[in-house]
Known about the structure:
Largest sheet: 7 strands, mixed
Number of strands: 15
Number of domains: 2
Number of helices: 10
Structural class: alpha/beta
Radius of gyration: 20 Å
Strand content: 15-25%
CATH topology of the largest domain: Quinone Oxidoreductase, Chain A, domain 1
Order of helices and strands: EEEHEEEEHHEHEHEHEHEHEHEHE
CATH superfamily of the largest domain: Medium-chain alcohol dehydrogenases, catalytic domain
CATH architecture of the largest domain: Alpha-Beta Complex
CATH class of the largest domain: Alpha Beta
Amino acid sequence: MWSYQVVAPGFVERVEVPPDRGELREGQVRLRLLVAGLCGSDMPRLNGASGKSARGDFGGAPVHEVVGEVVESATPLFKTSQHVVGTLGREASLSEVVTCSATTIIAVPDGFDDVEAVAIQPVSTVVRAAGQFPDVRGRPAAVIGTGPCGLSFCHILKRQGAGELTAIDPVERSETAAAYGADEFLATTSRDWLSGLDGRGRPEVVVEAVGHQNETVVDAIRAAEEGGFVFGFGEVTDADYVIPCREIYEKALTFASGRTNGNWPRVLQEGADYLAAHKQDFASYISHTVPLAEAQRAYSLYARPQSGRLKVAIVTSG
């Protein structure tokens, strides 16, 4: 069967590998991959952060947001030929057939085609995270990072009743951010935005949706108004971060974070329900649909933040 490997940092290549014919454990399903969505959390593996494998490559081409067709099932929850959406986990690869737990997928809901459905997984993680927010009604808010997840946070914060909402990103996305609910878009870094806050009102709710480094988390904390709430959503790639604990203490801030650890069926269903209720608002969420034969283009496109590029979906057939 086909599979994609990272052959050098940033570069993927199609290879043929033996199909997995092992017996499924109870509660597992085997899927034929139909659509894969790329995510910022896939990029460290793409760029070789895990180092070389024993085979001399950098492991499988990373992917975890998927829509697939059930080809084998060891659970009564799913039947063969059923289309499902969910997550494969952190170590999964772009392959023709993949195996996953039935606890990390749901059936593709009515009203979604396969490409539309791949957005359910990332949106569901944002819906789950936003469930940890305090009452934001009328409170000024800011979102650092306007990738797919940052834009989802903008949309949810506005639906929760947030006051003036500012989106910050050095990549120009003013029109897109406005469409997702931002009242103001600043095409600048979080550090430059922070330096200009002394003479203006500070946000009471700040979401860090960039990840992969320490600086934007620090900026989010330092930007928040006294008594404010800060959520660190972006992927954490270092074991330890240095954050301004005294500032958190002196300003009586609440800092929260955390990835989705369990109850994926409920999380995915809530994400699906949110998307279904706001489908038109998310019409631009998947900005690029790329055929499997151009997988390298898809990864290269996603690896570089740029205007006009949001979620990239790889379609394996058609």
